[in-house]
Amino acid sequence: MPDRMLQIYIEASNIVKVGFSLEEVRQWTDTDIDDLLDLSFAEGRYVFTAIEDIPENVSTLLNMFTCNRCARCCTTIHYIELSDEETQRIAKYTGVDFDSICQRTELISGHRIAKAPCTFYQEDTGCTVHPVKPDVCYRWPITQPVYRDNTKWIMINPWCDAALDLCRLVMQAWVRVARATR
What we know:
Elements: E1 8-12, E2 15-18, H1 22-26, H2 30-42, E3 47-49, H3 55-64, H4 72-76, E4 79-82, H5 84-94, H6 98-103, E5 106-108, E6 111-115, E7 121-122, E8 126-127, H7 135-138, E9 146-148, E10 151-156, H8 161-180
Antiparallel strand pairs: 1-2, 1-3, 3-10, 4-6, 5-6, 7-8, 9-10
Helix pairs in contact: 2-8
């Protein structure tokens, strides 16, 4: 397995670490993983993984994720970007015309933006567009890929307990892979 598959970028306090060596990863204990992730989560920081952003990888990660429907993503993420296609889909699903949906969002630099709390979230009923939710919501807690040091990184937002659990599962998998490559 290529080393890039074991790269991780952890951002928390003064820890900014990229590319843990196989030897470092082999020695991680569950307590080490919990300590890193708990610190990252407590500070609202991010965990990036160097897994290529291809449908099979995203699908595998999403299948590992079990949403607990806490709505933290709906109420605290700064914004979500909506394509015209997604906006049309939401309009059709809700029976509200396209222009009315557009009025609930902002157009910033040519991108349709719904700011937090999500305009389609209601505290008593939750997501009102769940069956036709935007792609960014479908992929949660996996964000759009980011480029750092010529590597395409998938970012996992550990902003809720369920996403934190996904980060933990991914890191535990890295430990198993690293130990198997001796």
